[in-house]
Write a structure and sequence with these properties.
With about 210 residues, this protein is an alpha+beta fold. The chain has a single domain, classed as Beta-grasp domain (Ubiquitin-like (UB roll), Roll). Helices cover about 40% and strands about 10% of the residues. It is built from six helices and five strands, in the order H-E-E-H-E-E-E-H-H-H-H. Strands 2-1-5-3-4 form a five-stranded mixed β-sheet, sandwiched between helices. Helix 3 crosses helix 6 and helix 4 runs parallel beside helix 6. The chain is globular. About 30% of the residues are buried.
């Protein structure tokens, strides 16, 4: 007489489980071996950089600049200390205030949160690069006319954020300006003047 207890209650038996577990283990080992081999090959192909300074070339404000920098250095540190472009301010040094805003290929970034080794062949534009042919950018002129800077620490970042806005939107609204400067922190509270200056610069640039 057949013992019903020997029959599996479903299509999944203990033997099936053991077989599957064995195959899974083999597959995992094979996968790990492949990953390790790939990682080893990749590591061998890479050239270690640092901790000492290495020579790099960056395009800054339209000029090719060759300099020595430690791989751990931030873009803000290199701009200020190696290239003497001190317009870029370091205030919070943790990406919270945007005083260090620069452009990488026309995209605003926090220079204090960007490793210089990650810049590569992208073009860097700092606040010094806004002026062209000896003349100030309209947003710089407007900041002066509307007294949009007080202590001055946030001003370079504000200029880079608002200048980027005007390059993308020639007819911004007050809400557009507020949105563009939402990451720029001003302890002096001169936001209303920044907004007025940006709208005035937009009219002047038409």
């Amino acid at each position: 007489m057949e013992n019903n207890q020997d029959k599996p209650k479903s299509g999944f038996s203990r033997r099936t489980f053991i077989k599957g577990a064995g195959l899974t283990t083999v597959g995992t080992i094979a996968l790990q071996s492949g990953v390790m081999a790939s990682t080893s090959e990749t590591d061998e192909a890479k050239k270690a950089l640092g901790p000492d300074a290495v020579t790099i070339t960056m395009n800054v404000n339209g000029r090719s600049r060759r300099l020595n920098a430690e791989p751990r250095a931030t873009l803000a540190k290199v701009l200020r200390e190696e290239l003497q472009l001190t317009g870029t301010k370091v205030v919070c040094d943790r990406g919270s205030c945007s005083a260090c805003t620069v452009w990488l290929d026309d995209t605003p970034v926090n220079a204090c949160m960007t490793f210089v080794m990650d810049v590569g062949d992208r073009k860097v534009t700092t606040v010094e690069g806004l002026a062209k042919n000896g003349g100030l950018h309209p947003i710089q002129e407007a900041f002066i006319e509307h007294d949009a800077s007080q202590c001055g620490y946030c001003t370079p970042g504000m200029l880079m954020s608002t200048a980027h806005l005007l390059s993308q939107n020639p007819n911004p609204t007050i809400d557009d300006v507020k949105h563009a400067t939402r990451g720029n922190y001003c302890r002096c509270g001169t936001y209303p003047h920044v907004f007025e200056a940006t709208l005035a610069a937009a009219k002047k640039m038409k």
